[in-house]
Amino acid sequence: MDIKTVGIVGAGQMGNGIAHVMALAGYDVTMTDISEDALQAAIKLIDSNMERQVSRDKITAEAKADAMARIATTVTLTDLGPSDLIIEAATERETVKQAIFEDLLPHLKPHTILTSNTSSISITRLASRTDRPEKFMGFHFMNPVPVMQLVELIRGIATDSETYDACKQVVDKLGKTAASAEDFPAFIVNRILMPMINEAVYTLYEGVGNVQSIDSSMKLGANHPMGPLELADFIGLDTCLAIMNVLHDGLADTKYRPCPLLTKYVEAGWLGRKTQRGFYDYRGETPVPTR
Ligand code: CAA
Questions:
Q1: Where is the site Important for catalytic activity (predicted)?
Q2: Which domain range does residue 141 map to?
């Protein structure tokens, strides 16, 4: 199956990055969100991220102009119906994702492939509530999408090989690398990454180190590009907590219990960069540790 048009649900951190790379790869993109303001902010961000690539000679000004012209926006979810491929990148809450799929279903073409950028929710369960479990799968990008090379492709129990192959071809066309993951809680990357981040929060909670020493240790001692607490702020502490809960509930092993300090930050609304405060305070010139 030849995919030409891509619908993206959600213009947030992940959605705008996905629109960015899809448009640069030549796909016609329609991106939707609930507010016009969110869509406008996303277009501005895509423009500035592409400009950064132009200024570093990663892409030409012409490629940027062509790609920007390929991105349409709409606040009407059902406008995405005619797309060949739909990638849902809304909030990491199952009820939200389910409601989106329910609204979309009557408007889809028979051949439309439905996917979710979920970082941890069961693909098989999401698929089972649609009319096309064989044409449903997980299409999981990493943040920042234009920079990170990996895409996890997750088959639900019913996903057919035609659907998998079509998605794999899209990943190839993006110039990214696909990793095939089985549909178990949090798949591969987050199954390994989130317990490490959660352990970093326990290390902070128990006073083994402070924010600075924990992040420096992992940057300088393990060559990670970001420290685990800085990375948690970058991903969003609410997302980190949601993924730990999926691991804890889905695998029923206490080794996945979310650190109470992570829960406390989320309860405070200190969700990381997106709210200007998390393990660091981003309101000034340079980030300042909050512990
Ligand atoms: N769009 C386009 N280009 C971008 C970009 C964006 N949004 N963000 C960064 N870049 C580019 C920069 O222009 C720069 O390009 P050059 O190499 O040509 O100079 C390059 O990326 C590096 O950026 P910076 O120099 O600004 O900063 P850096 O060297 O500190 O790198 C980083 C930034 C790439 C984010 C790096 O710190 C990193 O790799 N961090 C770890 C990220 C990570 O682990 N992501 C996965 C999170 S887990 C996940 O996403 C899954 C989930 O479900 C939660």
A1: 140
A2: 5-182
